[in-house]
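Much of our argument rests on the idea that a fold can be written as discrete symbols. The amino acid sequence and the backbone structure tokens for this protein are reproduced below:

___
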Amino acid sequence: MPVDAKYKTTATATGGGRDGRTALADGTLSFQLVVPKELGGPGGDGANPEKLFALGYSACFLGALRVAAQQLKTPVPEGSTVTATVGIGPRSEGGFGITAELDVLLPGMADEQARQLVEKTHTICPYSNAIKASVDVPTRTRSA
């Protein structure tokens, strides 16, 4: 399905990939990358692709939630949050895969209304759309 990209950004990784550095071409962000101990690296301070994905997915889903709420004519409760948990590990078919989970807090919203809002958001969020064919994303929706 073609996408009419209205915005693009460019990043370059250097060094060893997961144990190197990544930086945006415009100079606004740069990260030292560190392989987690769980994947055989030294761990410690630094970013990794899964941390960056979790940051992006949580922010993107919260933004898409606001768009979905407008479409459903539902107010987004004050204090709403989205927490993304992203994992990596070997796939049974070989290679590696990612896992993703979302925890959506919608203070005071009725359960059915919250469920509908989150379902609609999954159809709008670019991250959800990018991974829906290969990653099951369990979503926990809470009102308190």
In short: The first strand starts at residue 11 and ends at 14.
